[in-house]
Design brief:
14 helices, single chain, globular, 3 strands
């Protein structure tokens, strides 16, 4: 493997198919690597990749930092997977000359945790196209990230006990996630003519459709990822202990879950106030 074109072909058509990645995911990887081919040229030698080259791409790419970072992350992952398969340089060469260590991205402020109200949820369903409604429901009922939902295979769904068996893409943690009523009904209505539940959708396609739906409903500052925050927040408001919320969300660090602790405190305070009134 020598060029960007070689890398793109191997990662999308050999590695991707071998790993049984969803068609939408492969399309995202292919189009992202196409950006690097357009910028550097298809015959660009990946051995010669430098931090300066990557910073030049970053400076001229335009768009949000998050999008640029996502593009760079996909290229980095493709190179690392090729490295593991001994398709180009050795690990020692990579460690000594990792060009990604030289990239500087301006720090973007983390968006605040946003929770969907019942009124906003009704608006989302009103304006959402039919093909993403099941994905929205699964996100709200399981807290799974969009990447995990799009990677769901029918073999991961136990239709007797109604649980999902999945390895969290971000953390690598194996989750056994119960499927409650609304999500269960949506899954029952899906066609079973492919190994994936959502074979034709990419993360980008879902995110863009969700954004259009949010714009139409005139809801402010809502991202698809906020459906995961809504799932965790609703558990906290139902007095589910933080340890159990962490387990259901697949958090590797309880500190991540503590952002929802104020909701537990509020509900405990209400319970104590009602007890005080009754005495």
């Amino acid at each position: 493997m020598e060029t960007l074109e070689d890398l793109q072909h191997w990662y999308c058509f050999e590695y991707g198919k071998d790993k049984e990645l969803a068609d939408g995911t492969l399309e995202t990887y292919y189009s992202t690597l196409e950006k690097f081919k357009s910028f550097f040229g298809p015959d660009y030698k990946i051995r010669k990749l430098t931090g300066k080259d990557l910073n030049d791409f970053k400076d001229q790419a335009g768009g949000k930092n998050s999008t640029i970072k996502q593009n760079l992350d996909i290229l980095k992952t493709a190179l690392l997977e090729a490295l593991k398969k001994k398709k180009w340089i050795s690990f020692s060469e990579w460690i000594d000359n990792n060009p990604f260590n030289e990239i500087t991205l301006a720090q973007s402020r983390k968006p605040k945790t946003r929770v969907l109200s019942e009124e906003e949820e009704a608006l989302i369903y009103q304006y959402a196209p039919a093909y993403i409604k099941p994905i929205i429901t699964i996100a709200l009922c399981t807290g799974l990230r969009v990447s995990d939902i799009l990677s769901l295979k029918w073999s991961m769904i136990d239709r007797e006990s109604w649980v999902i068996n999945i390895v969290n893409k971000k953390t690598g943690i194996e989750l056994i996630q119960p499927i409650i009523g609304p999500a269960r009904e949506e899954i029952k209505n899906l066609e079973m003519d492919h190994q994936y539940l959502f074979p034709s959708l990419s993360r980008n396609a879902v995110s863009m459709a969700f954004k259009r739906c949010v714009d139409k409903s005139q809801i402010k500052k809502l991202r698809f990822h906020d459906l995961r925050h809504t799932f965790c927040s609703r558990l906290a408001m139902g007095n589910v202990p933080l340890v159990e919320i962490a387990e259901l969300a697949g958090h590797t660090n309880i500190q991540t879950t503590r952002r929802y602790s104020h909701l537990l405190t509020k509900n405990k305070k209400k319970a104590l106030e009602s007890l005080e009134r009754n005495n």
